[in-house]
Design goal:
Strands 1, 2, 3, 4, 5 and 6 form a six-stranded antiparallel beta sheet that branches. The radius of gyration is 25 Å and the shape is globular. The N terminus is likely disordered. With about 200 residues, it is α+β, with helices and mostly antiparallel strands. The longest helix is centred in the C-terminal third of the chain and has 30 residues. Helix content is about 50%, strand content about 25%.
Length: about 200
């Protein structure tokens, strides 16, 4: 048994696992640090981080109340309302929620985000021409929750069903158009040259 232990110790030394003093050459890593790295890897692999970047960028661009793009010949504007959740991949504080009609644009929220937190979930108001939609958008898979469509104008039940389907598709198209605009910017040279510096200046 002693011979086996000696051989095992020599093997560990030859592998570089232990030093001449028999102690491990690699320090044991903090379990919290390991878990944080795993979380970050999963988030990046799953596209969650990109979704958070999109919502953070959208929050910044929406503050001016200007139209972000045109869809079906009508201007599309976005407003963050009521609720906002920001989240970090790791750190002492990983999630903060803010509530209130003006909360998403509050100075306190910007200060928190300047520390590295990005928008995870938000309540939005999308205005396309004279139509107004409300929805909660989550960064993970950009899931839509609690959508509120514009008031239906059709009177016949079958027409109301068709109108509701059309408005649902229109809302989906609006979100897709916003994501496409963001991705086009995110993959262009303009992102680092112009968008990021402006976004950082807005946060600070």
């Amino acid at each position: 048994m002693a011979k086996f232990r000696k051989a095992s110790a020599e093997t560990q030394f030859l592998r570089g696992e232990t030093g001449v003093d028999g102690q491990a050459t690699k320090e044991e890593r903090d379990p919290k640090e390991v878990e944080a790295e795993k979380t970050k890897e999963q988030a990046l692999r799953g596209g969650i981080y990109l979704g958070r970047e999109f919502l953070t960028w959208l929050l910044w661009r929406s503050e001016s109340s200007e139209s972000l793009l045109e869809l079906e010949g009508e201007p599309l504007t976005v407003l963050f309302i009521d609720r906002l959740m920001v989240r970090a991949l790791a750190g002492e504080v990983t999630e903060i929620s803010a509530k209130g009609m003006a909360a998403p644009y509050a100075l306190l929220v910007k200060q928190v985000m300047a520390g590295g937190l990005l928008v995870q979930q938000a309540r939005l108001e999308l205005t396309l021409g004279e139509r107004t939609f409300q929805l909660t958008l989550d960064a993970e898979n950009l899931d839509v929750r609690g959508a509120k469509l514009p008031t239906l104008i059709a009177e016949e039940e079958t027409e109301r069903i068709d109108e509701r389907l059309y408005l649902t598709e229109l809302l989906s198209s609006a979100i897709d158009a916003l994501v496409r605009k963001f991705v086009a910017l995110r993959t262009s040279a303009e992102w680092k040259r112009s968008e990021v510096p402006q976004l950082q200046a807005w946060l600070s």
